[in-house]
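Before a computer can learn anything about folding, someone has to put a protein's shape into writing. The outcome of that step, for a single protein, is printed below:
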Amino acid sequence: MYNNLNYEVKEGICYITINRPQAMNALNDEVLDELYAAFSAFAADENAKAAILTGEGKAFVAGADIAQMYKLDAVGGRAMMIKGHNVMNFMESVEKPIIAAVNGFALGGGCELAMACDIRIASEKAKFGQPEVGLGIIPGFGGTQRLPRLVGKAMGKYLIMTAEMITAQRALEIGLCEKVVAPEELIGAAEELAKVIMSKAPIAIAAAKKAVNVGYGMDMTTASAWEIECFTAPFASADKSEGMGAFLEKRAPKFENK
């Protein structure tokens, strides 16, 4: 089904691994199409509760495929950027958590792909960066927007304008990733995190993700009203009764929607 990805669902976790190690997992049109299909499958699969996205070999994703992009004119380049935005915006819209397990280089489109995930865990060997200005372009898969939202406006400009490649530890310090672990512990750490999230009420996780993603760009008054709207569905659910009942009864909850 996939030429460039490995896709597997096991014990509630969907594993999506970009598998183009000969090209450092670079994003071309076909990979972008397959990522959209894979995350669509994840979104529709009732047995998959969380996803872990990683790369095969030395790279998470070393960037967009420059060999392909070099041949594109402005119209073709714009079309490719629209496709990339569609993939990453769709990832953010999925109501289930997506965890990036950043195993190596996450540069350009790879850094942008990681930022479209909900949480990023990085190997000590991981490297992050937006090198596009050194190639005569700018980040085009959402990097100029997501990066400043994660690390702040000035730091976002610094990383984009200098094209500096930073270590996993530096990414942790500035908020570009949430945890750094030894390379051999990376997938295990992502799995542990996924299981923690999966133990919570799915309807609440979906509502929380939507509340944060949509509300983040609003003014505080509008965002507060949005939070109230997102609060309503979980509060009216059986999971709310189960979760609060379990707390009062001092037992572990058993959520219906697991």
Summary: Residues 202-248 form a domain with the Lyase 2-enoyl-coa Hydratase; Chain  A, domain 2 fold (CATH 1.10.12). The beta strands are 5-10, 13-18, 50-55, 59-61, 98-102, 105-107, 119-123, 127-129, 166-167, 179-181.
